[in-house]
């Protein structure tokens, strides 16, 4: 394999390299679960909040977010405060936020599943009832950057699903509130906001405290402590996923402006140093042009240091032999974000088996999906698109099976159930069914 000497530090790989598979596996490797030390610290925080409620939550918030509060009242924001944040935004921001919220709502309205049933010939009725969760908890990051878009993407599907109460937690390091985040909470229908974060916020949502109500499901991204806490409380509550770093895979046929592609890679690399940006193509000259664009544009970025570290750690330009090999790589990588920057993206779509979100054509920048296209930006990472889907309305609903037997149906099914139950030596099951059999 040819090692890169580019100023950006991004790797150049080729599928013809003898060690390509091993290098690709190393590049994709990401462990979303923390080490033993982090797990031990999280376990302590969870236990403290579970045992001591508000008091432990206040202590942890003072310690980790450098606050000096004495009660949960100081960490609670009311609905009027959220409305004030929205109304106080500059008109341009307020309008952009409102437009994004409406597009996200319209998209998710189409996801709403319906309850259904059917009647069999003997009058028995079978079906499915769809019901929303009573209460959802939304975690919104508040560390390296503020994410009002994350508020919209998590809360709006819950609201569309019919969730009765939406609780939001957001850390405020040094007591700094982000007005855009609060405004997004107002627009998205959040009922209550608590300015707490980290593992302590997850504990409060999972177990409940005197002030923070226990929720049925926790969604939203966070740091390694948040991810570790979510995994630990799973079972007490539902969770959406254990999210890894953001990632993008761009496939180019050589016809897209190299500077566009460089900036598309940067758009994910700037999230954090562990984010992943990969471009695959079969035109070596085009890959050279993209690499040159990366080197040229990188110094112009405000988050240049983060992007450079991300590209050197986990970024790559991969030269493959042809379209078929590019498709194989897509399904091998199972990316969170897939950009098909090709002439006929519709022709590729039937073969894409694993991807969180698919951005079609040269003009569809992944960043549009992050903010305002409509589909959810909470997506499976680290190859989990092989078995997971984007966050949606269905994540805030549950299904109950409906079985209503007629006398005739109970008799017929009872005979079948009796045979199977006795075959399993569960005679009470069998006798229960047999009572309904008509002679």
How are the elements arranged and paired?
Blueprint: E1 11-14, H1 20-28, H2 36-52, H3 54-64, E2 76-77, H4 79-87, H5 91-109, E3 116-119, E4 125-132, E5 135-139, H6 148-161, E6 165-169, H7 179-188, E7 192-194, H8 198-207, E8 217-219, H9 224-233, E9 238-239, E10 247-252, H10 258-269, E11 276-281, H11 284-297, H12 304-314, E12 316-319, H13 323-333, E13 337-341, H14 345-348, E14 357-360, H15 366-371, E15 397-404, H16 407-423, H17 427-434
Helix pairs in contact: 2-3, 2-8, 2-9, 3-8, 4-7, 5-6, 5-7, 6-7, 8-9, 10-11, 16-17
Question: Compute the gyration radius: what is it?
Answer: 25 Å
Main β sheet profile: 6 strands, parallel
> Which secondary-structure class do the elements indicate?
alpha/beta
Please mark out the parts with pLDDT under 50 across 5 or more consecutive residues, or reply none. none
Task: Give the proportion of residues in helices.
Answer: 40-55%
How many strand segments? 15
Number of H- or I-type helical stretches: 17
How does this model look, in words?
The chain has 439 residues and is α/β, with parallel strands linked by helices. It has 17 helices and 15 strands. The protein has helices at 20-28, 36-52, 54-64, 79-87, 91-109, 148-161, 179-188, 198-207, 224-233, 258-269, 284-297, 304-314, 323-333, 345-348, 366-371, 407-423, 427-434; strands at 11-14, 76-77, 116-119, 125-132, 135-139, 165-169, 192-194, 217-219, 238-239, 247-252, 276-281, 316-319, 337-341, 357-360, 397-404. The chain has a six-stranded parallel beta sheet, with helices on both faces. α6 links the parallel β5 and β6 (165-169). The protein is globular.
């Amino acid at each position: 394999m040819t090692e890169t000497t580019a100023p950006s530090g991004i790797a150049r790989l080729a599928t013809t390299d003898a060690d390509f598979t091993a290098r690709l596996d190393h590049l994709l490797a990401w462990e979303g679960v923390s080490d033993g030390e982090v797990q031990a610290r999280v376990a302590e925080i969870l236990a403290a909040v579970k045992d001591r409620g508000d008091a432990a939550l206040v202590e942890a918030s003072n310690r980790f977010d450098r606050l000096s509060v004495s009660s949960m009242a100081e960490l609670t924001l009311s609905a009027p405060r959220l409305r004030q944040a929205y109304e106080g935004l500059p008109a341009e921001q307020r309008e952009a936020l409102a437009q994004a919220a409406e597009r996200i709502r319209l998209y998710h309205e189409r996801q709403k599943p319906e309850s259904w049933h059917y009647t069999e010939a003997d009058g028995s009725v079978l079906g499915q009832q769809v019901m929303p969760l009573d209460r959802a908890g939304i975690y919104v990051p508040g560390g390296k950057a503020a994410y009002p878009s994350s508020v919209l993407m998590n809360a709006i599907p819950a609201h569309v699903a019919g969730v009765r109460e939406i609780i939001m937690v957001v850390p405020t390091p040094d007591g700094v509130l982000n007005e855009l985040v609060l405004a997004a909470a107002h627009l998205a229908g959040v009922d209550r906001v608590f300015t707490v974060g980290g593992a302590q916020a997850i504990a409060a949502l999972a177990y409940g405290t005197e002030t923070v109500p226990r929720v049925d499901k926790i969604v939203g991204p966070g740091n390694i402590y948040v991810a570790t806490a979510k995994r630990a409380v799973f079972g007490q509550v539902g969770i959406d996923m254990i999210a890894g770093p953001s990632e993008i895979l761009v496939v180019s046929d050589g016809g897209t402006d190299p500077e566009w592609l460089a900036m598309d890679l940067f758009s994910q690399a700037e999230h954090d140093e562990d984010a992943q940006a990969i471009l695959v193509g079969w035109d070596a000259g085009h890959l050279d042009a993209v690499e040159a664009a990366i080197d040229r544009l990188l110094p112009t970025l405000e988050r240049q240091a983060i992007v450079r570290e991300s590209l050197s750690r986990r970024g790559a330009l991969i030269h493959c032999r042809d379209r078929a090999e590019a498709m194989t790589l897509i399904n091998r990588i199972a990316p969170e974000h897939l950009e098909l920057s090709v002439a006929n993206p519709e022709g590729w779509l039937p073969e894409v088996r694993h991807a969180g979100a698919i951005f079609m054509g040269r003009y569809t920048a992944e960043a549009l999906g992050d903010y305002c296209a409509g589909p959810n930006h909470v997506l499976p990472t680290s190859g989990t698109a092989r078995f997971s889907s984007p966050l949606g309305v269905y994540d805030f609903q549950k299904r109950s099976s409906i079985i209503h037997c007629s006398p005739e149906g109970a008799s017929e099914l009872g005979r079948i159930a009796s045979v199977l139950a006795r075959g399993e030596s569960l005679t009470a099951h069998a006798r229960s069914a047999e009572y309904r059999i008509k002679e």
